[in-house]
Amino acid sequence: MARICKTVSRRKVNMAEKLQRFLLFLQRENVINLLVVILVIVLSSGALISFFEPDLSFASGIWWSIVTLTTVGYGDISPSTMEGRILAVLIMFFGIGLLGTLSATLATLLIRKRMKEDRGMCASTVDNHIIICEWNHRTRAIIKELRADPQTKSTPLVLIADIEEKPIDDSNLFFIRGTVNEETLEKANLQKARTVVVLGDDSVEITARDAKVVLSTLTIESMNPDVYSVVELVDKANEQHCLRANADEIIVGSELSSNLIASAASDHGISKVISELLSSRYGNEFYSMPLPENMIGWKFIDVFMTMKTQSKATVLGVQEGNTGEFISNPDGDFHVSREDNLLVISKDRDTL
After folding, report:
1. Comparing C-alpha atoms, which of 97, 15, 84 is closest to residue 53?
2. CATH number of the domain where residue 305 is located
């Protein structure tokens, strides 16, 4: 009970701080001053028109003042006395100027906010998102693949890169300008992120590139050990350094491409098959899915046959838990357990 009370109290304090910052922002941009002037004009003109027009109440005068000030002009109330008409003329002229100033101020604020976002000067408030560190040609391809996958099509992405402005037009991509460090990771809301992808900086030589990746991974894991980190390396010799930094998944680009080239040399055309399976934009794909409840304890051969007949999916192997060992092509009498994930080939994730 005490913990709940503390949580509620903390939320109230956070809301009060946010409200205070918002009011200070409006005051700094002179929005509050404009609103106060408009309120004074509405109240004073409403009182005067009700005084000049004997059959008009104060409430009706306020309504007339708002309609006239905004130049809407419904015509349901119109002054009949000379004093009332002079007041109406003054309100009309003042209304155009005040509302124009207010509209211009609000438009300036929105444009300035958009410019700051495009230049990576604003902090991100999204959660359950994917953070991508560094910008290069591989980053663009990664974002295209993520957007082609139905599971991550609408997932918020946060890009941390030392470039001038947001590189692509994606309404669900948020840009933080700078190198990967504690400050930029806090702006990217690392504590609430789901996954972090650390790519190499192509502007530096290979040894320094991998060293920078290891340092970024160490910083990320020290700030949020629960986030799933995917790390790109050039040299396999640096893999142990990333493991010591507690990286969850390490991809050695040179090793991966070398293996693929060697396989294509011995088995012609295999590179096309691998490319299709790894791409979310066309053909069949690799998927990882939890073991269905009704298949817990089944033999692998039974799981294989059922998935093929019911979902038209081919099961390639079993992963023991989310981060456990991957067993490819297990024996037919291998028993799957509740914690296992199935790695399958399928045309569509929704059919699984």
Report:
1. 84
2. 3.30.70.1450
List the structure tokens of 212: 């920078």
- What is the amino acid identity at position 150? P
CATH number at residue 24: 1.10.287.70
Domain range spanning residue 333?
Answer: 284-351
Rounded percentage of the chain residues whose pLDDT exceeds 70: 93
Dump pLDDT digits (tens) for 58-107. Answer: 999 999 998 888 878 777 888 889 998 999 888 888 888 888 888 888 88
| Residue whose structure tokens are 């990286």 | 247
The residues pairing with 195 across neighbouring beta strands, listed in sequence order, are 130, 228
- Residue 28, helix vs strand vs coil: helix
- Are 135 and 252 part of one and the same domain? yes
Considering only residues 97 and 314, tell me which one the structure prediction assigns the higher pLDDT.
Answer: 314
User: Positive or negative CA dihedral for 93, 98, 99, 100?
Assistant: positive
User: Closest Cα partner for 185 from 222, 238, 154, 230?
Assistant: 222
Whether 109 is covered by a domain: the verdict is: yes
The pLDDT value recorded for residue 280 is: 75
Is residue 299, in this structure, part of any structural domain at all? yes
Total of domains in the chain: 3
Residue spans of alpha helices (H) in 280-335: 300-311
Distance, in Å, from the CA atom of 216 to the CA atom of 66, rounded to the nearest integer, reads 57
Least confident of 10-19, 63-72, 124-133, 152-161: 10-19
